[in-house]
Amino acid sequence: MTDKKEQISAREIALGILMDIVQNSNFSHTVMSRTLNQYQYLEKQDRAFITRLCEGTIERMLTLDYILNQYSSVKVNKMKPLIRNLLRMSLYQVKYMDQIPDSAACNEAVKLAKKRGFGNLSGFVNGVLRNIVRDTKKVSFPNEETEKEFFLSVVYSVPEWLVKHFLSQYDYTLVKSMLEASFQDKKTIIRCNTDKITVEDLTVLLKQNKVTVEPGTYLPYALKIWDYNFLGQLNAFKKGYFQVQDESSMLVGAVSGVRSGDYIIDVCAAPGGKSLHLAELLKSSGHVDSRDVSEAKVNLINENILRNGYTNIKAYVTDALILDEESIEKADIVIADLPCSGLGVISKKPDIKYNMTREKQKNLVKLQRDILTVVQQYVKKGGTLLYSTCTVNIEENLENVRWFTEHFDYRMESIDEFLPSSLLCDTSKEGYIQLLPGIHNTDGFFIAKLRRKN
């Protein structure tokens, strides 16, 4: 273990993660999870440093590039990929990590450049960083009054096309609040498995393991946790006492109106949070079919089913675009939490904002409509379809629901009786709710409840 620590530093691990995410376009949460699993032997402090450095560098990448371009003779997009990412993460330490001495950030960057075979560019790395440290006031940011879109893009590190898209759907103050919320400290949100343990007992157990715990915002079985090292090391997790799930996602189960004995189909279920929640709400009765398109996704659902210990749920590999004749008009409830642009969860997956395009958004709207066309057939007459996404893009949300009710024999149904009073609004009475970061204490999320007509 000691030898491994001497061979590779926390900063070198972070650089490898950034290269994998930025250069190979791999998902940030997947790369982070895989790498931290690989380096479980690291001290809690080192793992926290790697996490903060990587997540922070990705979420602030456009801001960091904007600053670097004002100090470097070579523009960021012309740099060698490794040098570009090394400068980004080093600048992040200088600008956003107050506990890291500037000298340490600079010196370690130079060492890393040499170690990774770029000794000839170590002087360049040193020069750029030292110039920034010496004269931090040189940076000139866009004027918020005269360059609103460019200001939001640079300050909140969001591509300018996406800023314009947000502003076409929401007012400036709201968009700014949403973007600010993406930088807030991220706590892990969990749902207590009340079949196995009470919320109070789970709270005590977690605190005994030195985990900081707070109640959730909206639901009595939701908790916020932080200050743990590795989730998989917690006995409460291994025993299935809780499932990681944002409260916005829990609300799907909460508003479903599930009744004892119901048959439920979750068509795009991985990693299985909603399926598991509904299995719990069924209180050992009924059945949940938890479906997804690949073996890998279904394996993930199965891991969670096994850990949580539910017996009224089964996972299947099923393509939601292909009609399952045997399921037609069989389900009391169909959960359609469909593939989306993910623009409600950029605080957790910041690479989404750089990889999304307008064309991808339009393709996703079509995909959502194609899936809905198929899976709505599984709902019994008088049954319920719950449509949800983790995006704030109106085209994928309310516009899709309006399209759906125009083309199929469904009507929206009020969700007021299932919501906490703090979430009641004009739209919840109509049958849908749009949760927004910075306004609600959740991910950006959309839920619509639709009743099939008899």
Describe this structure in words.
The protein is 46% helix and 14% strand. Strand 2 and strand 3 (222-226) form a beta hairpin. It has helices spanning 2-7, 10-22, 28-38, 44-59, 61-71, 81-96, 102-115, 122-134, 148-155, 160-169, 172-181, 199-208, 235-238, 247-255, 273-281, 295-308, 352-355, 358-375, 398-407, 426-430; strands spanning 188-192, 212-215, 222-226, 242-244, 263-266, 287-292, 313-317, 331-337, 379-389, 410-412, 432-435, 445-452. The chain has 20 helices and twelve strands. It folds into four domains: 2-138, Orthogonal Bundle (N-utilizing Substance Protein B Homolog, Chain A); 148-181, no CATH class; 188-244, Sun protein, domain 3 (Alpha-Beta Plaits), CATH 3.30.70; 250-452, Vaccinia Virus protein VP39 (Rossmann fold, 3-Layer(aba) Sandwich). Helix 2 (10-22) crosses helix 6 (81-96). Strands 5, 6, 7, 8, 9, 10, 11 and 12 form an eight-stranded mixed β-sheet that branches. The chain is globular, with a radius of gyration of 24 Å. It has 454 residues and is α/β, with parallel strands linked by helices.
CATH class of the largest domain: Alpha Beta
- The Cα radius of gyration reads 24 Å
Largest sheet: 8 strands, mixed
Total tally of structural domains: 4
**What's the mean pLDDT score?**
95
N- to C-terminal distance: 65 Å
Please state the overall shape, judged from the principal axes of the Cα atoms.
Answer: globular
Structural class: alpha/beta
- Count helical runs: 20
Helical residues, percent: 40-55%
- The share of residues in extended strands comes to 5-15%
**Any low-confidence stretches, pLDDT <50, length ≥5?**
1-6
**Counted beta strands:** 12
| CATH architecture group name of the largest domain | 3-Layer(aba) Sandwich
Under CATH, the topology of the largest domain is which?
Rossmann fold
At the fourth level of CATH, the homologous superfamily of the largest domain is Vaccinia Virus protein VP39
